[in-house]
Amino acid sequence: MVNFIIEPVKPATAFKVEIATDTAARVRFASNGKIKMYGKLSRVKDARQVFDRMCDKDSLSWFLMLAVYAQNGHMEEAKLMFSQMPERSLISFNMMISSLGRCGCVQEAYKIFNNMPHRDLVSWNAVISAYGQNGYINETVQVFDAMPERDMISWTVVLTLHANNRNLEEAKNIFEKMPERDLAAWNCMLNAYSQSGYPQEARRVFYSMPQRSLISWTVMLNLSAVNSSLQETKNIFEAIPENNLVSCTSMISAYAQSGYHLEAKSLFDRMPCWNLVTWTAMLAACVRAGSIFMAEDIFKKMPFKNPVACNAMLAGYAHAGKVEQAKCIFDKMPCWSLVSWSSLLYVYAGSRDMDLTRRFFDKMPYQQLVSWNTMLDAYAQNRYMAEARVMFNAMVEKDVISWTIMLAGYGLSGQSSLARKTFAQMPGKNEVSWDAMLSACTQAGDSISVFELFHTMQMAGIYNQVGFVSALNAHGQVGSVKCARSCFVSMAFDCGIQPCHQHYSCIIDGLARAGYIDNARELIGNMPFVPTSLDWLCLLAACRSLECGTCVSKWVSGIASSRAMYSLLANVWAWH
Description:
Elements: H1 12-40, H2 44-53, H3 59-71, H4 75-84, H5 90-102, H6 106-114, H7 121-133, H8 137-146, H9 152-164, H10 168-177, H11 183-195, H12 199-208, H13 214-227, H14 230-239, H15 245-257, H16 261-270, H17 276-289, H18 292-301, H19 307-320, H20 323-332, H21 338-350, H22 354-363, H23 369-381, H24 385-394, H25 400-412, H26 416-425, H27 431-443, H28 447-459, H29 465-478, H30 481-493, H31 501-513, H32 517-526, H33 533-542, H34 546-559, H35 563-575
């Protein structure tokens, strides 16, 4: 026998209430969904219109509207919404603290944190992140010490703050005390050592990592590009499991820094896609290598040209001395930075049109020390030393470059006494200053001063290739072959400086001047460089034998014919 359970019939009014309630819930659910959707699309006004039309808002409606304002950076509206909420949940408090921290309103974030009826770990992490993201070291540490419990986020915030502020000892202590470390913590420590100039410690961290991300590999790639050989950088690049735009761009920059722009272009061509940073890195590689035609091709193909790319192309034209092309790039730029103005000023300075250069200098909206030095150098290199002196005296700020420009200018124009006076008055000297003074004495034929200055440089531990060129030239001028040879040998064995072609040329000239024609001729044939016409002309200038002069002239004519060669050969004939 089947038993039927008969329920009492509900009144009609009860059915109406259930239907009405169910309908209101569906409308509220749909409205909340719209608010959330508009928030994700950053359509804040549309979300607010939906919120205002709602007749039956619940706590979720208020929270969603608060989230729309907070997540889209409308903090004034978010603060007003938070103050008007009929009831505030723990999640609402946490969201306000995090949002205020992201926009830099740290004190307001802490005020809300301080007024919370109760807090959880998320609340503590939100306020410590607010302090940490805005660089409040002491406050971050105080909150960290006061936390009743900590998780990975808490530890990582403090670690990141110390790492970003180059407090490596504190970062290392935090890292070692962490109960567990995730990939973000390892990457943070790796980046801290890398950015602070500790490549060995960075490598130790990298090879100790239990796992690595593309970020880890890219940090090591950039570190190797600066501190290691190109081969080691290539090895790291090839070991990356999966390269992306960032790592490929870093490798292109590494090639550029080492002067391998063709290898950079090869990698660039193999990439499936490029972004603006990649295009600009490739352009900079061509400019650095002096490959102006390749740089022009890259620049024309760029889908978008930002100021950095324009400045790079401008610098390329500046070094190539292409005045019209540089001016064309400059005129098309939407805005100009100090780099833009200085690059075009450099172009005009190299054109030797001093009136045009000065007019452009006076037209610059702001003139920093680099601009003054560029204009000063233009005067000095073109031997307008009176104008250079007026400008030098008018400069509010001077650095060692300014003084060295004046010193070199006096040397170039043959005013060695003013060069010495400037050198004596310099408040600070660097290697370039010493080299400029040596060159001034060499050009003036003052070998004694060259020897004295060179000896003083050696006593101060200043050794470089330019200084040895001046010393070898001076020995050649006075005919001291033995001293020149000793100086040449000392450069390599005592100072560790590899002789360049110019050093060999100085010895050839010295031997020829002293009458050691056969020795000079033998050195030209045996030196590890291809002889230039200048090397042979030095030898020809010293020839007093018709046979020797005729033989040398044949060698020179095979390289390059010039008026100097024929003039010197005529002198040899005149001797006979």
